[in-house]
Write a structure and sequence with these properties.
single chain; alpha+beta; Glutaredoxin; Glutathione S-transferase Yfyf (Class Pi), Chain A, domain 2; 2 domains; 9 helices; globular
Length: 199
């Protein structure tokens, strides 16, 4: 299998974490794609030009990190990252959606600040900075949830990859006044899958 990524994509990082956690690194070739270029050869592989993009052994391509992670998680017949059954299912899905919401906003913020100065929108930057501040405040409470501290799950992976964008967004200073969230992030960041994929 082939996985197309870029260094800066937090969505690609999520997939790379799952690959390491599932010990699939010997089955998947990681290829760095050239995106946002007018005639990139990558567009012949994936017409949308987005990453991550997984090309299975049968040649079929999968786009979107949630789909790719679910596929990789089930390859060994022992999925561990899906939402639990029973009473915790909707809480797990709620937390994953909150983590994804934070990540999506931060991805927009990051793209915007890396545009050429004349193309940047200060309105978009302010909007995403405000959204991130509200979401981090929310997570300071939700990080105490049992599912945030249980076995590694997709909500935790997504949240850690989102908070890790502090390395790409200098103005994303989320740690002050978020001691519990900061302590959680510092702990999960020592996990080898996060160390190996750090931006």
């Amino acid at each position: 299998m082939k996985l197309y990524i870029t260094d800066t994509s937090p969505y690609a990082r999520i997939v790379r974490v799952v690959i390491l956690e599932k010990r699939l690194e010997n089955r998947i070739a990681v290829i760095y794609a050239l995106t946002r270029l007018a005639d990139s050869p990558y567009y012949r592989i994936n017409p949308s030009g987005r990453v991550p993009y997984l090309v299975r052994d049968d040649g079929v391509g999968l786009e979107e990190s949630t789909l790719i992670c679910a596929y990789l998680d089930g390859l060994d017949g022992n999925p561990i990252f899906g939402a639990p059954e029973g009473a915790d299912e909707w809480e797990a899905r709620r937390l994953e959606a909150l983590a994804r919401s934070l990540l999506d906003g931060l991805a927009v913020w990051s793209r915007e600040i890396h545009r050429l100065q004349p193309e940047r929108s200060s309105t978009v930057i302010k909007h995403e900075a405000s959204r991130a501040a509200r979401m981090v405040d929310l997570w300071e409470n939700d990080i105490a949830h049992t599912l945030s501290r249980s076995a590694l799950n997709m909500a935790q992976i997504t949240l850690a990859c989102a908070l890790g964008l502090e390395a790409q967004i200098p103005e994303f200073r989320w740690r002050p006044n978020h001691r519990r969230l900061s302590n959680w992030f510092d702990r999960i960041s020592t996990r080898q899958s996060f160390v190996s994929t750090a931006p």
